[in-house]
Amino acid sequence: MRTRNTDKQELVKQKSIELIVKHGFEGFTMNKLSKACDISVATLYIYYKDKDDLIIKIAQEEGERMGEAMLINFDPEMHFEEGLRVQWENRYKYMMDNISIGPFFDQLRSSTYNETFLEAFKTNFVHNIEKFMKNAHDRGEINRMIPEVYWSIAFSPLYSLVRFHSEGQSFGGRPFKISDEVVWKAFDLVVKALKN
Q1: Which carries the bigger pLDDT value, residue 105 or residue 182?
Q2: 121 and 152 in one domain?
Q3: Are 16 and 64 members of one domain?
Q4: By C-alpha distance, which of 174, 178, 189, 26 is closest to 91?
Q5: Are residues 76 and 28 in the same domain?
Q6: What does the pLDDT look like over 158-172, one tens digit per residue?
Q7: Which of 31, 73, 164, 189 fits as disulfide partner to 170, beta carbons 3.0 to 4.6 Å?
Q8: What is d(CA 80, CA 179) in angstroms, rounded to the nearest whole number?
Q9: 95 falls within a domain
Q10: What is each CA distance from 83 to 12, 30, 71, 130, 158, in whole angstroms?
């Protein structure tokens, strides 16, 4: 029996994400993936049972990886603005270091793989964020709100800026390139909105 090669597995994951972003789930095939990786289709089946198994495992692994990255230097006991800043720093760094991941996650969210993807976040990450929000509310730093409203206000601006950057343009085709200055101006506006 052939053994698994971790470098090959990483290549398979990377190319899978790129192909899914480019072609969607419908246009993504094991044959296209084997050509992109310059390996045989049979080699793919050493790592994964089938296309669904591959997508599910990548969704779980990448969801867990992002969840862990978002908690670097984060403590739910932090004061609101400080904790939110750490969250933005972590998300911004993660998305810029993994520029295809945002569009890949968008594909997952609008597919039958959404539940599997979301399961990866239901562990340590969600617990820490819920505790952070409760602490901020209890200290009077923010008003009580449902998590969906909080997330929409707190992180959608950052994700939109990164999306504009990855597409190279904003509304009407105007060229756009993200900068730290733009990110932190948006952050200041988000903090103001959440503190009112």
Answers
A1: 182
A2: yes
A3: no
A4: 178
A5: no
A6: 999 999 999 999 988
A7: 164
A8: 24
A9: yes
A10: 35, 42, 10, 12, 15
What's the CATH number where 175 sits? 1.10.357.10
Residue 184 confidence (pLDDT)? 98
Domain that holds residue 162: 60-195
In this prediction, residue 1 carries a pLDDT of 43
The answer to whether the CB of 133 falls within 8 A of the CB of 140 is: no
Percentage of the chain beyond pLDDT 90 is: 66
- 115-124 long-range CB contacts below 8 Å, 24 or more apart? 116/56, 116/59, 116/60, 117/59, 117/60, 117/63, 118/63, 119/60, 119/63, 120/59, 120/60, 120/61, 120/62, 120/63, 120/64, 120/67, 121/63, 121/67, 123/64, 123/67, 124/67, 124/68, 124/71
CA dihedral angle for residue 47, residue 49, residue 51, residue 55, rounded to 10 degrees: -60
Asked whether 62 and 54 are in contact (CB, 8 A), the reply is: no
- Residue 185 in tokens: 């101006």
Task: Give pLDDT tens digits for 12-65.
Answer: 999 999 999 999 999 999 999 999 999 999 999 988 999 999 999 998 888 888
